[in-house]
Amino acid sequence: RCWLTLMKTVTIDTNVLPASDLIALAKVQGYEVAVVSVTGREVGHGDARLQAPQLGQVFETGIWGESEWGTSIFGNADYLERILHIISNGSFPKSGQRGQLSDGQQRQLRDAMILEAHVRDGRDVFVTNDKKAFINNGRRDALQSFLKTRILTKEEFLQELLS
Q1: Taking the model in full, what pTM does it have?
Q2: Euclidean distance between the first and final Cα of the chain, in Å?
Q3: Residue 137: which region, alpha, beta or left (left: phi > 0; alpha: psi -120 to 50)?
């Protein structure tokens, strides 16, 4: 087996940054830590790794009119749609009906893009503080079951690393 398949991986959601304490501890515990390329746009500049230069980067799934060339790849549209359905409680506009998204819908789309890229890349733990989108009202259970990944808050992941 290749040594890379043995490494544990964690993806940090935008709302967890900056997270130098978590990143340093995760690396000591043997995790490879990354953000998804979407995060760079969410924090207001082209590269979220400027906030935490020790982070790797996962390329997002390309979405026409949203993604940037050079930082996106083909992904699983079915997964993205299912994630959008779960995090929006079924209220997100269907594909083909997304001409003008509200600010809230734009954030939901980017949330789904980040989680889909995490799963597409075969990563182990997704760390987010966005309880509304990813945890509350059974969303964590639904997402973890469907996507076969773990979703933890920053505090939960820190507790796990320290135990």
Answers
A1: 0.84
A2: 28
A3: left
